[in-house]
Amino acid sequence: MAMQDKPQTPVQSSEPAAGRPVRHLELKAALLLVFTALLVTGSALYLLYARGFFEPTQKLVLVADDSEGVVVGMDMTFSGFPIGTVRRVELAATGDVHIVIDVATKDAHWLRTSSVFTLVRGLVGGTAIRAFSGILTDPPLPDGAMRPVLRGDATAELPRVLVSARELLDNLGALTAEEAALRTSLANLQEITGKLKGPRGALGLAFGSDADAAKVVAALDRTNALLARMDALVAKADAQVFGSEGMVRDARGTIHQLNQLLGDARASLRSVDAVLGEAQGIGANVRGATSDLGSLRAEVEANLRKIEGMIDELNRKWPFARDREVKLP
Amino acid sequence: MTAVSRGLRRLGHTGRAPLRWLAGWWRIIFFGASLLVLAISPASWRADVRRSVMRHIYLDTAPILWWFTVLSALLTLVITRIVVVTALSYGLSRYALEMVIRVLVLELIPLTAALFVALRCTIPNGAAVAEMRRIGHFEHLLEKGVDPVVTEALPRALAGIFATITLAALSCVVALVLAYLAVYGWTPAGVAQYTRVFGHVFHPTVALIFVLKTLFFSLAVSIIPMASGLYDVEGDGSRESAALQGLVRMFAVLLLLEAASLAGNYS
Questions:
Q1: Which of A3, A13, A126, A261 could form an S-S bond across to A18 if both were Cys, CB 3.0 to 4.6 Å?
Q2: ipTM of the complex
Q3: Which of A6, A22, A39 sits opposite B169 (nearest CB)?
């Protein structure tokens, strides 16, 4: 109604609400209102969820001697995962600092009665509270437990590092001083490199004097000459040993002759072997004859015993038998 | 004698300038308070006013909502990429996400939304109100027993407030989603960590300052141009003068609010 009462001017037609009427304007506006309300409500709910408003927690009190670096809202981590949030930092009646931490109940099983808590201040970044549980079979940490926290301050190491750095710089200064050993060594090194670049080079540097270096050079020359003579000698020996008239050829002929001799010897031995075979047959025959002689002899002995027995019998029966009785005088 | 009187008059003008400046601010504050009282008064919500409010809410917000969302998404992608790559190169990637949320959601997007709404809606609305007043439309309404502040200024101011809040809220949500995607990619694996970082950044104090800042931004961009157009705080009452006055005062207030929010967040 009010819009229709207004006079139309260029300015009014330039504002956003000007123009032709929009169909279902109120419905669209209501939808827009609902959309915005849902957006704001959803954002608020997500924020509450992110802040852990809907998550049950249990309390843990860490006792420290200094609260420096500890701020409300910082995380307590276990193996790098945040499991708790600092809810309050307060000064106890004993002068200690009580850091009250809310640990999510679903993560509280990582904390055991034997867990260790550390408060570490790094050189870069903020302070970090960490929990370590070595024995996960220990009883779980009860709600409202109070535990000491171990402090580790990287910045506390800075004075010691500075002292060490100063000592290092002093040593470096002493090394590079005017009369320092390093400078003298460098000067000597420079002198040595100068000698190396000289006419005698490394030999002059190694033997100290040019005369000795000259001796070494002469010795080397003589050694070279000796080697040349040795070379000629070896060539001659090669000709004598392996040449056309050398020792190797004679040796080969000798070996050939030896082979022939060995063949002859082998034939002679074969003949001897046959002779020995025959002798062995003769021996066997002799052994048979010897056994026949034994039986013959046994028979002869038996016959002799029989004859002896017969003679004895004859003697007894014969009239001229001798009187066998002995008559004592 | 003439020169002396002219000098005294100039001195008088110079002496009255701070008073006029203060009176201008007082009118703006008074108008804002009156507008808020009218907004919560049931007597103001007649059927024609309700229709006018709905019309302005839709026409001031809907056409710019998607454009602004696309622009803020582009801004989010660029800034997130810059921050993440820089943080990675310095080995500070664990702080990148927190920095993106702080820079974009807490600081840039509410201010950008307020400026966008001011330039697109509330300053033209204030100029239109000034024009209506100049051509005698308000006297015409008063003769008919209709309060022009309720029928003309209130719907426009409420629409400005609503547009600022909607744009800021939607752009913040889009920025949060895009920042997550830029850092973690298309995987839900980082949702828990991202939620924790988000909760860590939005400490209750920070969240309160964020809400108050957005609210005061919306009030500033809606009320100041309207008050400048309605009461002719300074100048000759022309359309350009009203727009310029509204713009200068509004920028000054936005600057103060941003400074106060920064001081509250980081001091």
A1: A13
A2: 0.86
A3: A39
